[in-house]
Amino acid sequence: MSIQPLTLDLEAQLSEFESRLRAVVRSEVEFVQLIEEDLVTAGGKRVRPRLVFLASNVLGGVPGAMELALAVELLHSASLLHDDLVDDAETRRGKEAAFRKYGNAVSVLSGDYLLSRLMALLAQTGRMELVAMFAETARQLSEAEVLQFQVAALHDYSLENYERIIDGKTASVMRVACEGAAVLGDAPVEEREALARFGSLYGQAFQMRDDYLDLMGTPEVLGKPAGGDVREGKVTLITLRLLEAYPEEVEAIFKRRASEPHDIARLQELAELSGAGLEVTRAIAARVEQAIAALRVLPHSAYRDELEALARRELVRVK
């Protein structure tokens, strides 16, 4: 596969991305192919590839943006295959989780297959710095996921740990999507730093919003019952606030993993009574505004506007 010619048409880039993704994950092993087809056809928002293309386009287009977008999505997809297994998830993007259909070993090894394809894509760019950045991102992602289990096991709930978790497991991937484009484009230091900061802050807001909705969203919005994080012992920003306001009651709910029928409804009620829900939505809004402010050093363009709009959509989704 060769580096794609430059184009600044976002929709054309995303369409080409879907075609290339199918080719990249193709395997002669039937079970691997079935899992990868599930990932491709299930789609998703493709937020991370979109970030790559927008960051690239802000810089006037960079060689290797397609390979970077594919690599970022494969890293994300591999982490989902592994996460679903350790979380004992029922579904992924509305479909039965891969490990439930094909078994634990096949699911884990198929995630490893995606990582192998990712390394081939990075090699095509010829940029060793990008390879090092992905290695660091994979380290941060893995450590954050383990930290999340450690916090749940030891009940070591703190804002510091929560920030470390969301930065490692979500923001790090968003960051490498944006900063990677700057590396490929040999962008000036201030522009590279701006895109890296945007990716970090946007990724944090993105995860904070997901965590908020996990408790406060409706089954219709979530596509699953609310409160999954509480049942897994995962503390998020909103439940941290509830632990501070109602320590005994909320700790008891966490200890029994919300096993009582009305536990989640009670946490939702407490979030409304204490103002914790409003406080968290304000924190998300502040993180979004910080992300947008980071972009101001970049030349104004329709692509910068779209990056700003992408960040602001995180505010719409908490309502």
From TrEMBL:
It comes from the Bacteria. The keyword Metal-binding applies. InterPro entries: Isoprenoid_synthase_dom_sf (IPR008949), Polyprenyl_synt (IPR000092), Polyprenyl_synt_CS (IPR033749). Its EC number is 2.5.1.84. Keywords: Magnesium, Metal-binding, Transferase. Its cofactor is Mg(2+). Pfam families: polyprenyl_synt (PF00348). The keyword Metal-binding applies. It is an enzyme of class 2 (transferase). GO terms for molecular function: all-trans-nonaprenyl-diphosphate synthase (geranyl-diphosphate specific) activity. Belongs to the FPP/GGPP synthase family. This is All-trans-nonaprenyl-diphosphate synthase (Geranyl-diphosphate specific).
